[in-house]
Specification:
The protein has 332 residues and is α/β, with parallel strands linked by helices. It folds into 2 domains: 196 residues, L-asparaginase, N-terminal domain (Rossmann fold, 3-Layer(aba) Sandwich), CATH 3.40.50; 90 residues, Rossmann fold (3-Layer(aba) Sandwich), CATH 3.40.50. It is 28% helix and 24% strand. The strands form 5 sheets. The protein has an 8-stranded mixed sheet with strand order 4-1-5-7-8-9-12-13, with helices on both faces. A 4-stranded parallel sheet has the order 15-16-17-18, with helices on both faces. Strands 2-3 form a two-stranded antiparallel ribbon. Strand 8 and strand 9 form a beta hairpin. 44% of the residues are buried. Bound molecules: aspartic acid. Aspartic acid (ASP) binds next to loops.
């Protein structure tokens, strides 16, 4: 029997046309589907136009809109494909992994580097692959499908701004390869018995600070006034500068004293943090009430904090939830 899949369109290059002011989303969800008629050969599709924006304009509240659209239609469909701009797609795939948990159906996020209405484009393949993966048996959870790869939602990262091979799976195997109608799965889906859970509250007040040599620590005074959670992209396996006039430890200490949540991550894309190795890491761990990101992506760290801090701001509670593994987001 054919599966019923809902296409939720949100915009992005895949749906863009040339305008006098540059490429902008214009193509509707129905039109998108019209470019790939093969999809209707193996599944029944309805469409929903939720947004039509460049994903640069994505707001955290829109992730809740997406989750709500899925919740409303959850019983009616066997799976969901969300078409989306590539620029913030890995934030969306991570966010949906936290805001919709224990999924027993697939939610596939996809997009393209070229619009669907041009002659040479990756859009048709990505859309077709996404529907194939959504219609495959025993697939559940949030995935980003792009260039023949299905990447677990919490592990995706945009690594190329122009090429078709734009996304990588970070610190985790690619979940499946989709080659026409041959799907090779490399990981087995967890089976959830608790039932799907949708979360409605999001806490967007999270700042990401990328350290560079020479940065003045008092930048944290301003950040502390405006934000409740701060993710620090430090260097290597993770460390905080403390030398001479640029001592970040003191400033971070006063932020945590004021109840701010600090997560130390790394600017290095692969292999994650391991702060127990160097003095610069150990000093921070010993002196401060901070957490480290280990092998999680920055996108997952930020959206997970947005999910957690909507529920609690208590450090120990945050810690417990942050180190609870959700949709394969960490191996630690
Ligand atoms: N700027 C576009 C967007 O993110 C890029 C794309 O879709 O590839 O919406």
């Amino acid at each position: 029997m054919k599966k019923n899949i809902l296409l939720i369109a949100t915009g992005g290059t895949i749906a863009s046309k040339k305008t006098e002011e540059g490429l902008a989303p214009q193509i509707t969800s129905e039109e998108l589907l019209g470019y790939v008629p093969e999809i209707k050969e193996f599944c029944n599709v309805d469409t929903l136009q939720l947004l039509n924006i460049d994903s640069t304009n994505i707001q955290p509240e829109y992730w809740i809109l997406m989750a709500e659209a899925i919740e409303k239609n959850y019983e009616k469909y066997d799976g969901f494909v969300i078409s989306h701009g590539t620029d913030t797609m890995s934030y969306t795939s991570a966010a949906l992994s936290y805001f919709i948990q224990n999924l027993d159906k697939p939610v596939i996020v996809t997009g393209a580097q070229k619009p669907i209405n041009v002659d040479i484009t990756d859009a048709k393949k990505n859309l077709l692959d996404s529907f194939r993966f959504a219609a495959e048996k025993d697939v559940c959870g949030v995935y980003l499908v792009f260039d023949g790869k299905a990447i677990v939602g919490t592990r995706a990262r945009k690594v190329k701004s122009k090429s078709y091979s734009a996304f990588e799976s970070i610190n985790f195997p690619v979940a499946a390869i989709i080659d026409d109608n041959r799907i090779t799965k490399y990981i087995r889906n967890e089976k959830f018995t608790e039932g799907v859970k949708f979360y409605k509250n999001i806490f967007p007040s999270i700042f990401l600070l990328k350290l560079v040599p020479g940065m003045e620590p008092d930048v944290l005074d301003y950040i502390g006034e405006k934000y409740e959670g701060v993710v620090i992209e430090s260097y290597g396996v993770g460390g905080i500068p403390f030398l001479d006039k640029r001592n970040f430890l003191e400033k971070l200490d006063s932020l945590t004293e004021n109840g701010k949540i600090i997560i130390i991550a790394t600017q290095v894309m692969f292999e994650g943090s391991d702060m127990g190795i160097y003095e610069v890491g150990i000093k921070a761990l010993n002196k401060l009430n901070v957490l480290q990101a280990y092998d999680m992506t920055i996108e997952a760290v930020i959206t997970k904090l947005m999910w957690i801090m909507a529920q609690t701001k208590d450090f120990n509670e945050v810690k417990k939830l942050f180190y609870t593994r959700i949709n394969e987001d960490s191996l630690y």
